[in-house]
Design goal:
Two copies of one chain form a homodimer.
Chain A (H helix, E strand, L loop, with lengths): L20 H13 L14 E5 L2 E4 L4 E4 L12 H11 L11 H11 L8 E5 L2 H16 L3 E5 L8 H4 L15 E4 L12 H18 L4 E7 L16 H9 L3 E5 L23 E4 L10 E5 L1 H10 L10 H16 L2 H20 L5 E7 L2 E6 L10 H13 L2 E2 L1 E3 L5 E4 L10 H14 L5
Chain lengths: ~450, ~450
Amino acid sequence: MTRQMHMVNSFDPTASESLAPEDRALLERRQRVLGAPYRLFYREPVHLVRSEGVLLYDRNGLDYLDAYNNVPVVGHSNPRVQERVAQQLSVLNTHTRYLTDDVVDYAERLLALFPPHLEQVVFACTGSEAVDLALRIAGHTTGRTGIIATAHAYHGTTQAAAAVSPSLGTNNPIPDNVVLVEAPDTLRHDPATTAREFAARITRGIDELRRRGHQPAAAIVDSILSSDGLQTDPPGMLGPAAEVVRDAGALWIADEVQSGFGRTGGWWGFERHALRPDLVVLGKPMGNGIPISAVVGRADLMEAFGRDVRYFNTFGGNPVSIAAASAVLDEITGLDLLHNATTTGAEAALGMSGAAAGDPGIADVRHAGLFIAVELVRDPETLAPDAARAAAIVDAMRQRRVLISASGRYDNVLKVRPPLTLSSNELPRLLEAFDESVRVTRTSP
Amino acid sequence: MTRQMHMVNSFDPTASESLAPEDRALLERRQRVLGAPYRLFYREPVHLVRSEGVLLYDRNGLDYLDAYNNVPVVGHSNPRVQERVAQQLSVLNTHTRYLTDDVVDYAERLLALFPPHLEQVVFACTGSEAVDLALRIAGHTTGRTGIIATAHAYHGTTQAAAAVSPSLGTNNPIPDNVVLVEAPDTLRHDPATTAREFAARITRGIDELRRRGHQPAAAIVDSILSSDGLQTDPPGMLGPAAEVVRDAGALWIADEVQSGFGRTGGWWGFERHALRPDLVVLGKPMGNGIPISAVVGRADLMEAFGRDVRYFNTFGGNPVSIAAASAVLDEITGLDLLHNATTTGAEAALGMSGAAAGDPGIADVRHAGLFIAVELVRDPETLAPDAARAAAIVDAMRQRRVLISASGRYDNVLKVRPPLTLSSNELPRLLEAFDESVRVTRTSP
């Protein structure tokens, strides 16, 4: 008998008696047709009916500040995205076996945002599909089977993506050809040696792969190590590891599903680490919620794969998804959201650091752009993780109608990742809710 | 060095000098940024700019009758789909970790179209993702690893879906835990024994899996065997095979990505075979081009998987995709498209049979609803396949601005699969183009 799986910040459906009758009725219907695979966030789930900008509204008209969702990168119900998608739907929506202009225009525009050695793109629909494809390309072009991933990574839900996603838990088997290495730990490491030590762990991981009979094909690393607890610092810490991977004849796959499209204040998270990825995986925010994802990569890899293997994704790069993705680039540029991620992110992190000051249970507030992590510990000396308090703060903020979540290897890291349109105006609400939630969950004096 | 892969009906990019200058310019840009993975249909690709109903329009304003695409099942640029998606985009588009009404409403409505033992649904974005998930569910709930698929099947492009897709060619490795069995062959078999013989092949396939050390977890079969040459008859021929699979303690996964949503005149292709699938995979037409797919299945399987394994698809079941899918159900029902698939499909097949009469190179015209196959042979006695003529007819019809393609194990089967809104009014255009194309490609008297 396998163990039941664990998910941080998930609603316990057996506790539904606490819900309002309307919500309970909907939940019961939902349990019947969607069942166990469908988990809800929060001790008290949120029943949403509409959204605008950084606000979500429940069925009673109450608003929630969304400080969690990176998919609506240019804001919920963004009117430009809406307009472009609606317009395209009335004109043409088909696949890439026909010549169409927009997918080429967008591909050129997207690639211009990458270093020049990344010359081609393949479109898919989800981050999982793009990760799966990147792994296929790596396996095919290197002729090798070994993969390095970080010890608490999440890269997706297809079989191949789940195989490099140890954060899915002990019921998710990690196959023999995947070796896991500890991610850098921003809080616990010495910044002077972290890059070298991570590179050394990758070297040992490659040795381990070879012992198992697998030559290394690729390392796949989330450029901001979101599921490994959001490890941000020091910038550059992934660079030497990428060199080790290249020296071993393997590819570096930068997973930008969470860190991409301006989240960190630059276009891509890997830029902070001054590394040269061979393949880059894009997803979530790419179409502001219209499914679109991509693998960007070296032309020689794409050409070799495309020459030998038939790959076609019916919905990949369809005109409607491309319209949404084009509107997202327009908005990120037009609203100067990279700059906003940098400034508002710094301001938010500073404010949260202030609220955390003197609280011995808050060991660290760190961030890159508008991706902020707060690490909770039971003891400031031992740094023993405090998952319970992290969960309590998440729920306390939800009671104050500010939505965040928690993650990390020990479930003790608050994950604050609002739409990039969050402005200074909305910041006080985030900071007040955080300040109160920190205080009401503090048990020691 | 691996061989270059083969794709039927693909444009040769080295032949671009025959194209108009504008198309050549676009193609050159496309080759630079999208590269080898992106193949175009037809000796002379079609450069599309808009669409309406069953018509596609090129940049010169010329219209093409779409007799190939099943994604726009309720017609290109369908105004109801457009309206519903546009409306939803201005209201709410988020994921299933929050309570929302529409995904539950749609799930109930969808499940009401299935036999009562199929009680739950999990949403994803593409057919590949849904196939991948169905295989994961089968593996997890049976605790087994062996898979049976048909010898020229196509089920998708993730690693796990490609592993059961031998039609992707010799550069696509089929792993040890997958055993391939010959599909029924409507043209070459004896209808009286085909069901029994297919079941016997499945039995031998299961034996082979066991010899390799794999107990059978599932058989995955496209209910209309599209890539195996569109094998339609006799109805019921898959039933005994499904019983063999159940008796072996394995699951039957019905792949309805091509045969689902009214294509065959009923809602689902498996209904023609009076079999009881354990899991059903839905895709392509589900959202008329907005990415959405699903696995429908037995509640016990879904519950066991969902209890043990963390599965979450960020875009799966998002409100916009659900809005599109709801509009598709509205249109299929409101426009009585199941009835239309039956009647117009029969009329089209009859007309094409008439055009084929007396042509020794056309061995069979078969169909189920609005999915029509025409099988080309070099010799009516030996039934030796004629891929060259199939390709010639596809291109001759494209010259007459009627779009179809070819497929099948020997690339010799024309694939005619128009939107289900094709009416009797448009039929003469299809039939005239077919008649002429058959005549101009006929070499012997």
